[in-house]
Amino acid sequence: MPLVVPLIVVLAISGVVLLLLRWTFAQPWAAPLKIRPEPGPVRLTAERMRVTSRWTSALPPVLVLGAGLLLFDSFLHTGELVVVDAVIDFFAILLIYDFVYYLAHRFLFHGELMFRQHAVHHGAKYPQVQHSLHVHPLETATGILLLLFSTWLVGPVHVDTFAATFLVYSIMNLAIHCGLDFGRFPLRFLGHMARVHDTHHRGMNRGNYASITPIFDLLFGTAE
Ligand SMILES: [Zn+2]
Ligand SMILES: [Zn+2]
Fold this sequence. Notes:
Number of domains: 1
Mean pLDDT: 92
Number of helices: 8
Bound molecules: zinc ion
Structural class: mainly alpha
Distance between the termini: 43 Å
Order of helices and strands: HHEHHHEHHH
Number of strands: 2
Largest sheet: 2 strands, parallel
Helix content: 55-70%
Low-confidence stretches: none
Radius of gyration: 17 Å
Strand order of the largest sheet: 1-2
């Protein structure tokens, strides 16, 4: 199965980034970088976090592998990797994903249909990187299915191109919850996205729905 090795690489890098961001947040020298200098009371119990984070860690690789096993040829290929095509596919998938996720987050998660499930994630009022895993399984599955759908729309794409988009999807999910604004190149953009997503977590009626870029929030007037 050609998807297994890239998938393991993505999960390993994501795991290292998660630990690195968590370690950084705990360091005294990182205090000036914190988006909320005085974090409020943590309302999430370790037990609740354990249950949701298990699901959120396990579901994406299971769904990606499942889609790879059942539908490989309809959205992926293992032929020659043409760099120009790979770059176009990479940005096209992420742009489509950012748009469909924006719609899902705004109208599904904050609409009537999945409000209760999404409220689980919004239990994190002062986001830190570990809260990126505090997500209801239905919401996690929706996010990964939207990424697979975006890939299918663009595809078939090279398996390594998909792995690269899956890596960006995972890293952005960690970065926007890291609670740190690095403020300088090359992490300035990640810090900006963490700040706007932190604003989103301040209530269930706030803007900033997209998770990869601010494009669609700016376009549709929901940027705060
Ligand atoms: Zn939300
Ligand atoms: Zn969040």
